[in-house]
Design goal:
- The complex is a heterodimer of chains A (276) and B (257).
- Chain A is an alpha/beta fold.
- Chain A has two domains: 191 residues, Rossmann fold, CATH 3.40.50; 74 residues, no CATH class.
- Chain A has nine helices and ten strands.
- In chain A, helix 2 packs parallel to helix 5.
- Chain A is globular and about 55 Å long.
- The longest helix of chain B has 39 residues.
- Chain B folds into two domains: 31 residues; 209 residues, Orthogonal Bundle (MetI-like fold), CATH 1.10.3720.
- The chains are: A alpha/beta (276), B mainly alpha (257).
- At the A-B interface, strand 6 and helix 2 of A face helix 7, helix 8 and helix 11 of B.
- The complex binds adenosine-5'-diphosphate and magnesium ion.
- The site of adenosine-5'-diphosphate has 12 residues of chain A, from strand 2 and helix 1.
- Chain A: It comes from Azorhizobium oxalatiphilum.
Amino acid sequence: MTGENDPFVQLQQVTLTYGQGEKTVAALGETNLKIGKGDFVALVGPSGCGKSTILKLVTGLITASSGWVFVAGREVGAEPVRVGMAFQNPTMLPWLSIRDNVMLPLKIVPPFRQQFRAKRKTEFRDRADALLKQVGLAGFGDKFPWQLSGGMLQRASLCRALIHDPQLLMLDEPFGALDQFTREELWAIMQDLWMTRRPTVLLVTHDLKEAGYLANRVCVMRARPGRIVEDCHVDLPRPRTIEMTYEPGFVSLTQRLRELIVSARAPDAAKTEVPA
Amino acid sequence: MKAINRRRLQSAAVIIGFFLLWELICVVFHVKEIVLPRPSQILTTLWLQAPAIWPHTVQTLYTTLVGFGLGILTGVFLGVLIGSSRLAYDVGYPLLIGFSSIPKVAVVPIFVLWFGAGTVPAVLTAMIMSMFPIVVNVATGLATTEPELEDVMKALRATKLDILTNVGLPRAMPYFFASLKVSVTLAFVGTVIAETVASNRGIGNLMMIASSSFDVPLVFAGLLVLAVLGVGLYAIFSVIEGRVIGWAKRKDDFALG
Ligand SMILES: Nc1ncnc2c1ncn2[C@@H]1O[C@H](COP(=O)(O)OP(=O)(O)O)[C@@H](O)[C@H]1O
Ligand SMILES: [Mg+2]
């Protein structure tokens, strides 16, 4: 449990309320979370329970209403941490080629930013191409987004999230819109990328199999107000395979998660039948 | 390719047919020249009076393009301001709607009062008329950036300027170029209005003088020149639009207006 002593990400008694005056939404009740450096944590839970909100808090896109968010030992925003993000919607810029889309963070984030003009056609280009090759998009660098399928765009979007070697990788249902086969293929690619680069990953998903396959820890959340009700460790060896997801241990894990979420959805029923 | 050629042929046939019908009706019903001259008379007048019409044409074109150029500059500036700042949007947008609903012909006398009759009021009228579609389109283009993309950029600690140059402005380009072809036509309308009211040069002025001396064929010759200029400018900016933002045509999610 690397996360306990020297956490890379730490949420301490964080709450978040959207809006002001009468129309407030308590999106997050008091939440505590510690994530060790290089760990892979999945957040699961019914929609609207505050998963995306946690992601935004950790990246500093929104500020906690109360409590503290620490990243790399300092309050979020103070430390220049490199962050990569990918969403369900790949949001490629339609006027740029796939390669230029992938290189976008290098244009923005220091120290790459200062070297961008000089290395754009050499080192950075090779870097983008290598990454594209790793996700199975070799030779597609010069294509434009409208020439690629949804699954291919999502691969490119992962490349864009990783090109600047982020210490923190935020994935908000990145595989949610894909078919089962593409999804499983991307899980394997994602696992590879994580094992070679070791960023700290926070993955939001509603696919329990995905959470169990990819993550070291799965946090189950409950809505109104959102909070983490369970934190399960996934003790399966790496690299994991799709076959493993059919083994009894894995199946019982996903079943347990499922029960937790179902009971989280019906708060009254939960009181009587929360499993130990 | 064939379908396109056939469509072009059809529209050419419709236009030629229109003028032929016009000619025919005038001949059959003995319509007087002073009411509605025949197309052939208009063309003859245009040909004979060309040396007199030409300087006016140049003047009108010049005024329109200068006014349009200024309209682009101020329009883009205001559009970027309104589209990228919440405060500017809240303050600027109602003001903009208010301004744009004023009939522009009403401001010409004010310009004449300030700058005297002549080219300046015409340039300014062309400018303010062509400015509004540009402002609205650029602002819309900037304001419709996907929130998730903005999150990606903000997570990279991109500055406002980074987001504007890398995402906002390229994204607003299709909107901008779509507005240009509408705007250039409006600039043209502005010029002619101002020339009609308060200038001693330009096609608008030519038509005023011609109509006061009942030279109806000359009035229509002026109209024809305006139509040709207007269509020409519209066509030029349509072609530029197609060239510059070909990428946007591949996707359907750009509602151009
Ligand atoms: N910008 C916002 N303004 C107001 N309420 C919001 C906003 N974003 C999210 N919420 C509300 O906060 C709650 C949690 O949202 P979110 O974190 O997006 O949920 P999840 O990602 O788990 O589906 C929801 O009830 C949602 O309606
Ligand atoms: Mg969400």
